[in-house]
Amino acid sequence: LLADTTRVATLERIEKYWYPRLKELGMSNVQSTLVCTKLDLYEQQPKNDQDAFQTRAESFASSNQIPIVHV
């Protein structure tokens, strides 16, 4: 699951569409990983935007027991 760290909407789409869709299709046995991309651009974002994205990504990953990778 790929999320653009500069666009929280991509994380919202994963939460509300892609992850539930994988479960619908019977992919619940497939190991998922949340990959947060554009880390170089993320570091240029305002601190409050960084914190909001990070908090939401960590919450999603924790509640679904999936790892997070930042690239």
Offer a concise description of the structure.
The chain is α/β, with parallel strands linked by helices and 71 residues long. The chain is 55% helix and 14% strand. It has helices spanning 8-24, 39-42, 47-64, and strands spanning 2-4, 34-37, 68-70.
Strand order of the largest sheet: 1-2-3
Number of helices: 3
Please report which band the strand proportion falls in: under 5%, 5-15%, 15-25%, 25-35%, 35-45% or over 45%.
5-15%
Q: What distance separates the N and C termini?
A: 13 Å
- Structural class computed from helices and strand pairing: alpha/beta
Number of strands: 3
Output the helix-strand order. Answer: EHEHHE
The coarse silhouette is: elongated
Low-confidence stretches: none
Radius of gyration, in Å, reads 12 Å
The protein's oligomeric status is single chain
Helix content: 40-55%
How confident overall, as mean pLDDT?
91
Largest sheet: 3 strands, parallel
What does it look like?
- By secondary structure, the protein is of the alpha/beta class.
- It is 55% helix and 14% strand.
- It is built from three helices and three strands; from the N terminus they run βαβααβ.
- A three-stranded parallel beta sheet has the order 1-2-3.
- The longest helix is centred in the C-terminal third of the chain and has 18 residues, at 47-64.
- The protein starts with a strand and ends with a strand.
- The model has no long low-confidence stretch (mean pLDDT 91).
